[in-house]
Design brief:
The structure is a homodimer.
Chain A (H helix, E strand, L loop, with lengths): L1 H4 L4 H9 L10 H16 L6 H8 L5 H5 L3 H31 L6 H18 L4 H13 L3 H25 L5 H20 L1 H10 L6 H17 L16
Helix pairs in contact in A: 3-4, 3-6, 3-8, 6-7, 6-9, 7-8, 7-12, 8-10, 9-10, 10-12
Chain B binds a DNA duplex (30 and 30 nucleotides) through helix 2 and helix 5.
DNA sequence: GCTAGTTTCAAACAAGCGTTTGATTGACTT
DNA sequence: AAGTCAATCAAACGCTTGTTTGAAACTAGC
């Protein structure tokens, strides 16, 4: 399956030029596949979602996936790229905007966190139906050890992570670089777990069944928690201070 | 597949009595299956791991899984239960020990966190080879939306979560119950993401390639972060204070 | 209105899946 | 020594998987 993906059909190559003339009035096959795949991948995961399930839901022929995307793996990457790429672009643009607005002064942790999360929220809200589904799909992909997924995400995130690590480093000058990396890692963990898990949605439904626009509510809980964690005093390097007695 | 699982073979039922007379000198078929399944489920996930792969790695017959466990799903649950049940038991016992040692006084957040994490670390260290693999498997299971996994984990964790939520509530009396639930949720998120992801291992290898016993290092980074987050001041309920401008 | 090229389609492909079967083994009881 | 029963085994079951094929349908350009 991996071999065929690097040898796309001749039709696919010559079709690329034609692709520029889109027809926005009617949703084309490629988009219908992406929409259906996004929802089903989110619901069942990559392995458990069959192409027959996707193509049936999208009302397209089974062969359309391999024709338009080359393989199931490439379809999965296309599903992620479609929304992930603009989101990370937004994140970096927002961070830059904050930095220039501040006139060179170091940003607060809350400000940096908001630059990470606001584009994610915008994504979750704007798109008619795929939004929050996509974030859950993304959270799942984080935890997936499949090599092609990890490599893809690593490439997709590298630039953004580097930018935000530098920003956090400037906001927390008393922390060494390694500590900053760790705390950024924990931030990403709490975020992806919260966005991916079904538990967060259940909790919202439990406490605020009337809330529709619950993403802000979620962020309002999460941001102070993370900002306080980022500003925590560092632990001494050598002593087993508080978890020694088991 | 789900039907056959509730109708185990007659052999399996009558075998239960015989099971008491174990043979610890040689690893039996059931344990070999569990060990191989744990490692392969961790590496490829539930769906992508075939029974043929497991039974080949365990050097047992293909039919042995269905004979001893009933189905692939029941095998997965058995893999989780084998280590998860004792770990959660340990967590609650440790929390009780801390509480009685403190003589009724409210515990600190660090103390409660340590009661959650020390059993996890013990699990990662003690078992010869399966330890850290299992924690990664567990982290994956957290993010899996498969109903049988979510239901299983929910039941497995319900008692422990309730105990720790109560403990955190006592440690943070100024927080309302809902806020405590959220922050416990974030704590679990950062933990499971850190334990499950390959990134944490990569970071340890990058900064401390000589470290073998790297679990303490990880906890020493994570615990101050989480404790500070738990103690963070609450956000005002109504105002969009810091993330309004996008 | 024919032709060239893109897209769709039904059908089939080989391979792998979880599970079941029925025979065989081997250790124990009576 | 015969009988019992848990355990193992090779083989097959029916089914689904991702992918490929070649013809049909469609959409332009000349």
């Amino acid at each position: 399956m991996a071999l065929s993906s690097v040898i796309p059909s001749i039709a696919r190559l010559s079709k690329a030029a034609e692709q520029a003339t889109e027809k926005p009035n009617e949703v084309d096959t490629k988009s219908r596949i992406l929409d259906a795949a996004e929802e089903l991948f989110m619901e069942h995961g990559f392995e458990a979602t069959s192409l027959r399930l996707i193509t049936t839901a999208a009302n397209v022929n089974l062969a359309a996936v391999n024709y338009h995307f080359g393989s199931k793996e490439e379809l999965f990457q296309a599903v992620l790229t479609r929304r992930l790429d603009p989101m990370n672009q937004d994140r970096m643009a927002l961070l830059t905007a904050y930095e220039t607005a501040g006139g060179g002064a170091a940003l607060t942790c809350e400000k940096i966190i908001s630059a990470m999360f606001i584009p994610a929220l915008k994504l979750a809200r704007n798109h008619d139906q795929g939004g929050k589904n996509f974030l859950r799909l993304l959270g799942r992909a984080y935890a997936d050890p499949a090599p092609f997924i990890r490599e893809f995400l690593s490439n997709q995130y590298a630039e953004m992570i580097a930018r935000f690590r530098a920003a956090f480093g400037r906001a927390l000058p008393h922390l060494e670089r390694e500590e900053v990396s760790w705390r950024l890692h924990f931030v990403m963990g709490a975020l992806s777990y919260t966005l991916a898990g079904t538990d967060a949605l259940k909790m919202i439904a439990q406490f605020h069944p009337e809330e529709i626009n619950n993403d802000e509510l979620l962020l309002k809980r999460l941001a102070p928690f993370l900002a306080a964690g980022l500003r925590a005093p560092v632990q001494a390097t050598d002593g087993h201070q508080w978890f020694q007695e088991a």
